[in-house]
Amino acid sequence: MTPPRAVAERDPGLQPERTRLAWRRTTLTGAAVAVLAVKSALHGGAQASGVVAAALCAALWLGFLGLAHRRIGALTGPRPAALAPRVAVTAVLCTVALAVCGAALVL
Fold it and tell me: Any stretches that span the bilayer, and where are they (predicted)?
């Protein structure tokens, strides 16, 4: 049986840093998609549907950015809490909706 003290002194290694970097990379990718969506919407004249889709892409990216910022902040502690299922589902939905909006602008 492991003494309770050993559990409290867990060395997480570089795992929290790798997770923070993964959140940052995903946020950067979402920013690139949002910028390309705006560029695509404005290319060849601005149509109302394109502007709405680009605005939706920007809003989804901002929502994901907020989620990522909260998660990165939560990972700074010595023993970060697990990601809540509700937050995980919201992040996935933001990512999928951003991809769908980007694809709608391309087609």
Answer: 21-42, 48-67, 87-106
Answer whether 98's CB lies under 8 Å from 64's CB. yes
| Inside any domain, residue 10 | no
pTM of the model: 0.76
Closest CA to 38 of 66, 100, 46: 46
Q: Is residue 100 part of a domain?
A: yes
Six-digit token string for 105? 């602008």
Tokens 């996935």 belong to which residue? 92
